[in-house]
Write a structure and sequence with these properties.
The structure holds two protein chains of two kinds. Chain A contains no helices and eleven strands. By secondary structure, chain A is mainly beta. In chain A, strands 2, 4, 5, 6, 9, 10 and 11 form a seven-stranded mixed beta sheet that branches. The radius of gyration of chain A is 13 Å and the shape is globular. By secondary structure, chain B is mainly beta. Chain B is globular. In chain B, a hairpin with a 6-residue loop joins strand 5 and strand 6. Classes of the chains: A mainly beta, B mainly beta. Chains A and B meet through strand 4, strand 5, strand 9 and strand 10 of A and strand 5 and strand 10 of B.
Chain lengths: 109, 119
C-alpha cells in the first residue's frame, strides 16, 4: 500500500517563506505523479491550489508555487499572509489510483 | 459557474447500505472523470474511487473494494456512490470532485455530505 508523507505541522511568521513537502513510499515523486496541492480551512471543502507539479489554477494567489525538490513534490508559500493558516494536502497519481498525503497544518504566528 | 452538490448521506447502522449522489452543473459532465473523496472527523483526506467520463473504467482504494461501487448517469449529470456493508470506519464527510488528471487535477469540489455509521 502506497503511503504519501507530509510534515504534520509547520509554523511560519507573517511575510515569511515556507516550503511543504510530499514524499512517496514508492520512491522519488516525478511529474508523472501529477502532484496536486490543496488548501483546507476549518469547516470548508478543500480548495485546489496547484496541479501537475507547478501549474496554478486561475484563483491561486501568486505567492503559492509548486515544484519538485529532492525527490519530493513541494509547495512554497512566499510572503505568507495570516489567511494562509490552514491544512494543506498533496495528492499523487499512481496510474488509476490516487493517494493523498496526511496533510500539513500550517500555523502563521 | 461550476457546482457539485452531494446528497443522500445520513445515519446508517453497521452492515447497512447507503447511496450517495452528486449533481453536477456548469461544465460538460459527460467529458469529465469524477472522484469521491472522504474525510473522517478530525482526520485527513482519503481518495475513495474514480470513474472515467464514459463510465467504462473505475478504480477504488483497497479499503472499499467489493463494498463500494462508483457509477454515473451522464444524461442526468449525476455521479453516485453505492456503499454496502458499512462499518464505523466509513463514517466521514464524502466529497465529489472533478478529477481531470494531468489536465487540471482535482479542480472543483462539492461541499460534502456526512455519512455516519453507528448503532
Amino acid at each position: 500500500q502506497t503511503v504519501v508523507t507530509q510534515e504534520p505541522s509547520l509554523t511560519v511568521s507573517p511575510g515569511g517563506t515556507v516550503t511543504l513537502t510530499c514524499a512517496s513510499s514508492t520512491g522519488a515523486v516525478t511529474t508523472g505523479n501529477y502532484p496536486n496541492w490543496f488548501q483546507q480551512k476549518p469547516g470548508q471543502a478543500p480548495r485546489a491550489l496547484i496541479y501537475s507539479t507547478t501549474n496554478k489554477h486561475s484563483w491561486t494567489p501568486a505567492r503559492f508555487s509548486g515544484s519538485l525538490l529532492g525527490g519530493k513534490a513541494a509547495l512554497t508559500l512566499s510572503g505568507v499572509q495570516p489567511e494562509d493558516e490552514a491544512d494543506y494536502y498533496c495528492l499523487l497519481y499512481y496510474g488509476g489510483v490516487r493517494v493523498f498525503g496526511g496533510g500539513t497544518k500550517l500555523t502563521v504566528l | 459557474e461550476v457546482q457539485l452538490v452531494e446528497s443522500g448521506g445520513g445515519l446508517v447502522q453497521p452492515g447497512g447500505s447507503l447511496r450517495l449522489s452528486c449533481a453536477a452543473s456548469g461544465f460538460t459532465f459527460s467529458n469529465s472523470w469524477m472522484s469521491w473523496v472522504r474525510q473522517a472527523p478530525g482526520k485527513g483526506l482519503e481518495w475513495v474511487a474514480v470513474i472515467k467520463a464514459d463510465g467504462s473504467v473505475k478504480y477504488y482504494v483497497d479499503s472499499v473494494k467489493g463494498r463500494f461501487t462508483i457509477s454515473r448517469d451522464n444524461a442526468r449529470n449525476s455521479l453516485y456512490l453505492q456503499m454496502n456493508s458499512l462499518t464505523a470506519g466509513d463514517t466521514a464527510l464524502y466529497y465529489c470532485a472533478r478529477d481531470t488528471g494531468s489536465y487540471l487535477g482535482f479542480d472543483y469540489w462539492g461541499q460534502g455530505i456526512l455519512v455516519t455509521v453507528s448503532s
